[in-house]
Amino acid sequence: MNGVPLSWYLILSAILFALGAAGFMIRKNMITVFMCIELMLNAVNLSFVAFSRHFKTIDGQIFTFFVMVVAAAEAAVGLAIILTVFRNRSTLQVDDIDSLRL
Amino acid sequence: MDPILFFIFAAVAVICAISLIVQKHPIKSALSLIGVMGSLAILYLLLGAEFIAAAQLIVYAGAIMVLFVFVIMLLNAGEEKSPARPSWFAKLLGIPLMIALLGILSYVIQRAAPEGSLAFGEYTGGAREVGRALFTTYLLPFEITSVLILIAILGAVVLAKKEL
Amino acid sequence: METLLENPLLQKLLAPLIITIVIIAVFPLMAGYIVLVERKVLADMQVRLGPMRVGPHGLLQPIADAVKLLLKEDIIPRDADKSIFWLAPVISTFTALSGFTVLPFSHYIFVTDVNVGLLVIAALSSVGIMGVVLGGWASNSHYSLMGSLRSGAQLVSYEVALALALVCGVMMAGTLSMVEIVRRQQDQGIWFAFENYGLMLIPFMIYLIAAVAETNRAPFDLPEAESELVAGFHTEYSGFRWSLYFLAEYANIFVVSAVAVTLFWGGWMRPFPNVGFLEVPLNVGFPVLLFAGSGLACFPLARKLKDPLQAKILALVAVGLIGVGLIFLVPFVNDKIIGVFWFLFKIGLIVYVMIWLRGTFPRFRYDQLMDIGWKWLIPLGLFAIFLNAIVGMLRAG
Questions:
Q1: Shortest CA distance to C136 belongs to which of C150, C147, C152?
Q2: Do B64 and B3 fall within a single domain?
């Protein structure tokens, strides 16, 4: 056997996604929480590319490309929000940021 | 050859991902995330997605992660304080439940995923194919993402401005 | 033994392996001599002599420097983050040297030819930023942190302009593979820098400016501005770790020059590739004249030296240079190495221009740096893509 079955890639993707989700729930630092979201996006990308190869079409890769673009936009806006929150409250702990008012 | 490479880089990715969620310092988490992204890029190469692999490194590891590290350094984010009352319940049940969930999930995937495997090099989607699809079938989404990015730039500038 | 050599897998692996080993072995020495040339040229521009003590006219200075660096005490600051402090220079060196894998030194000397070769270099250089940024952060010193913040902002800003300039070249070539890019120039019989009635010179200039900024060279050397930040991100580094950063910096310079040569200056091709009668004078006459001429020029210098040992060394170097020049007269050998000669010669020219810039321009202020990157280079890059696309389409009919 020379190839890697599709299911292995999907399982790896599931593991990475689960780790990202777990990190999203257990971490307290806002930036680390944000990084866990990126990890989840990456995990999904992996399954897109794996499916793309399995069905021999390019569409999965295109979707990955769009996810990357959206992730970049999201990172820019998200980090700007983190910057603003830090400036107003001087904390990065998600537990301390619990009111909608300034 | 393929399974060996897959296992090496899958292991690197999982170890880096675990390191990402257990490291106390955000910079070290960021470094671990770069490790995940790098090994995923190599897995993409293994899957024949050359362009996506390069884009993964340029966009994620190069641009987004530099932004993250930049913000961490700018805010001088230190080590994370452990929560006031560590929940023993979560520690006791969390990890076994997660392993159980992953076990069930992998079983389902094994059963449901279509059979058959492709070896390295049997199918490659390089820059040419991606470009052709992007500018014909997916032209409208592509143009809309450019508007999205413009909005993101404006949003970031407005949010990060000194006086809100 | 013969069966082993005929094994196709081994043959596929052997050539890249040998080339890789040669690159890894030779490049540190070459970096040392690039530094010597830089010091000598700068000294000449500032009417000084430059290094003169070690060896005749400082010819052995790089070796003395290397020995000094390797024997130096390796200091890790007490408050530094040890693991990242250790890792950061490794990231820089690893990514910088990995860039060599896709460079086409000549039509058959390259480690590998990837379909997305140009993107591989872009990817590696964008990951390489992390080495500088993390190194400065891990040192836990204000100077280093300032340096790495600056370098992070600078590298991310200029990467955009760099990519836009590369897009123009890729548009001309229609491929991302480094070897194929040069092949296309060979087919069209023109360097891409002069394609489109010379309009491609605009992206080349943008590339050159952005590349100088990407490699943190003067006048864009804010991350290590010695008059403001001591040494920027590598203030706390010493000994072997510092020399890793140093090696990475010169490897980056080499790689960006090599990309410029490949994409705009015709890679391993000689100048005027479509003028047939220049073949012999340029491919044989020029290298012979260059090497043998500089060899001959060494003899009067050697006679002026007072120390007999140094005079002997210089005479030996001169004989060596003449020997290298004579090798180019053998048609069989000439055929094999002329590509590498032109490739390295053009890289040398670009490196010389970079040194020249360093000797000429004062350092930019931080706001000027950002202005040049965002308000000039990026719009100009977009304009160049637009212009070259339209002119290229009109030319194609």
A1: C147
A2: yes
The values of phi and psi at residue C113, to 5°, are -115, 105
Say if CB C271 and CB C282 are below 8 A apart. yes
CATH number of A6-96: 1.10.287.3510
Q: Which residue among B17, B26, B67 sits closest to A79, beta carbon to beta carbon? A: B67
pLDDT (mean) for C328-342: 81
Residue B70 sits in a domain whose CATH number is 1.20.120.1200
Judge whether B51 lies within some domain: yes
Residue B26 near chain C (CB below 8 Å)? no
Task: Tell me the residue range of the domain where B158 lies.
Answer: 125-164
B34 and C127 within 8 Å at the Cβ level: the answer is yes
CB A24 within 8 A of CB A32: no
Q: Token pair 């390191």 is at which residue?
A: B19
Any A CB within 8 A of B63 CB: yes
Give residue limits of the domains in chain C: 18-71, 78-269+363-397
Sequence spans of domains, chain A = 6-96
Asked, for residue B92, whether it belongs to a domain, the answer is no
Residue C11 vs residues C6, C16, C111, C177, C179: alpha-carbon distances, Å: 7, 9, 13, 22, 20
The answer to whether residue B151 neighbours chain C at the CB level (below 8 Å) is no
Q: Pick the residue with more confidence: C5 or C339? A: C339
**Distant-in-sequence, close-in-space partners of C176: CB < 8 Å, separation ≥ 6:** B126, B127, C115, C116, C117, C118, C119, C170
CA-only gyration radius of chain C, Å: 22
Q: How many domains are contained in chain B?
A: 2
Q: Which residue of C has its CA nearest to B27?
A: C134
Under 8 Å between Cβ of C222 and C363: yes
- Confidence check: pLDDT of C1 > 50: no
The answer to whether A29 contacts B77, with C-beta atoms less than 8 Å apart, is: yes
Residue B66: which of C115, C122, C152 has the nearest Cβ? Answer: C152
How far, in Å, CA of B32 to CA of C83, rounded?
Answer: 13
B130 and B65 housed in the same domain: no
From chain B, pick out residues whose CB is under 8 angstroms from the CB of A5: 113, 115-117
Q: Which of B41, B59, B79 is the last residue before a domain boundary?
A: B79
- Asked whether C154 and C78 are in contact (CB, 8 A), the reply is no
> What's the DSSP call for residue B79?
P
Q: What is the ipTM of this complex?
A: 0.86
- Select the residue from C90, C94, C119, C148 to test the B interface by mutation, using most B Cβ atoms within 10 A: C119
pLDDT tens for chain A, residues 1 to 102: 567 788 888 888 888 888 888 888 888 888 888 889 999 999 999 988 888 888 888 888 888 889 988 988 988 888 888 888 888 877 777 777 777 766
Task: Decide: helix, strand or coil at residue A93.
Answer: strand
CB proximity C214 to B under 8 Å: no
The answer on B61 and B131 residing in a single domain is no
The reply to whether B3 and B69 lie within a common domain is: yes
One-letter amino acid at C174 equals G
pLDDT in tens, C350-372: 999 988 888 888 888 888 888 88
C193's tokens: 């820098």
CA nearest to B26, candidates A28, A78, A75: A28
**A60 burial level (CB within 10 Å; 0-12, 13-18, 19+):** buried
- DSSP state for residue A29 in the 8-state scheme: B
- Cis peptide bond upstream of A5, omega within 30: no
